[in-house]
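Need residues for this backbone.
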């Protein structure tokens, strides 16, 4: 893979128009910090477009993407995702999927995320890019950066970068109505620790390569999402799927207890955690307070709460309904929030709004 002439013209332009610092022969904006993204559908910019999987784990068809990009990019929403807004706030270019053919501007970072991926290799194995596989892509990229920038310059880039994680949800999703789940061999607490442990191994590998600044999204209230509300037994109208809610809460608690210990173990590590659970719960329970419409749950889908994942008509269920104004809705489809919800969350974690994120806000992490 070669760095194109376009890369050099972009760097040259930056060196002429704004204050710079130079990495060898390459000059970048003075406060330049790259963003590397690992995770699942909450942050996948379209990597699953380029792997051998099923339409259950792809969204490269309309009406996905139509609110902002005007075409389906592979992002599971009507528009941008949280990392897209963070890149904008950090004055980076929009970061496409790592597997996108021809993408070479890795000085801004890379997005390795995959719809359906989990922290465990066993989660939807063969259909998604697991967290360990994403780490392998990152390792390959490190080698490429060393070849193109030189050892010293590549190290500077990776040392300054912010590493953004949204992972774990699918490890718990697959336990619902599954007869082959790893959960059968563990208690709930042991299973959560297994998920957190796999995350830890990846974090430590990135730390060895110079990574010091990390962002972790807590898991959302997925048991109350349209997808899982639709699975609740008939007659229990409006109820959330408590089995999943229990696992999500255990995960978020374990993550909040684990990270301070990791910070004390790994010298120089800085992190931010973002409370996605409370953020989404507040908008589900009191939508009008945040600019959404009461009684509007999912914009695109079918069945109860539009919780059947049929948006776009490319999966097993072909029929679907599409709302007129997606800005009324917290969720775009049965399992994924709308661009409007994602933007609200990104603004809060960027500024470090109390009770949403901490101990560092993202803006601070992107500063030297």
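Answer:
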């Amino acid at each position: 893979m070669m760095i194109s002439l376009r890369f050099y013209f972009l760097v040259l332009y930056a060196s002429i128009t704004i204050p710079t610092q130079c990495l060898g022969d390459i000059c970048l904006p003075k406060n330049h910090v790259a963003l590397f993204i690992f995770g699942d559908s909450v942050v996948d910019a379209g990597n699953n477009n380029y792997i051998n999987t099923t339409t259950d784990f792809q969204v490269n068809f309309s009406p996905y993407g139509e609110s902002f990009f005007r075409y389906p990019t592979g992002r599971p929403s009507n528009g941008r995702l949280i990392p897209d807004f963070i890149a904008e706030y950090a004055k980076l270019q929009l970061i496409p999927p790592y597997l996108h053919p021809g993408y070479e501007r890795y000085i801004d970072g890379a997005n390795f995320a995959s719809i359906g991926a989990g922290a465990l290799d066993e989660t939807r194995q063969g259909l998604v890019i697991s967290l360990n596989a994403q780490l392998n892509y990152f390792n390959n990229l490190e080698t490429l950066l060393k070849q193109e920038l030189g050892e010293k310059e590549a190290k500077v880039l990776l040392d300054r970068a912010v590493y953004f994680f949204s992972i774990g949800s699918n490890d718990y999703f697959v336990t619902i109505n599954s007869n082959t789940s790893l959960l059968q061999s563990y208690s709930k607490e042991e299973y959560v620790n297994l998920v957190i442990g796999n995350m830890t191994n990846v974090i430590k590998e990135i730390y060895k390569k110079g990574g010091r600044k990390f962002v972790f999204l807590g898991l959302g209230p997925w048991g109350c999402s349209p997808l899982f509300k639709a699975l609740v037994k008939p007659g229990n109208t409006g109820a959330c799927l408590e089995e999943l809610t229990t696992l999500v809460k255990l995960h978020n608690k374990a993550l909040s207890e684990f990270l301070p210990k990791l910070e004390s173990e790994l010298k120089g590590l800085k992190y931010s955690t973002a409370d996605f659970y409370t953020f989404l719960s507040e908008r589900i329970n009191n939508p009008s307070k945040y600019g959404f419409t009461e009684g509007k749950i999912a914009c695109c889908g079918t069945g109860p709460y539009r919780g059947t994942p049929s948006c776009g008509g490319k999966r097993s269920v072909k029929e679907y309904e599409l709302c007129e104004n997606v800005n009324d809705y917290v969720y775009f489809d049965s399992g994924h929030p709308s661009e409007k919800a994602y933007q609200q969350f990104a603004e809060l974690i960027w500024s470090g709004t109390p009770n949403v994120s901490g101990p560092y806000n993202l803006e601070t992490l992107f500063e030297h």
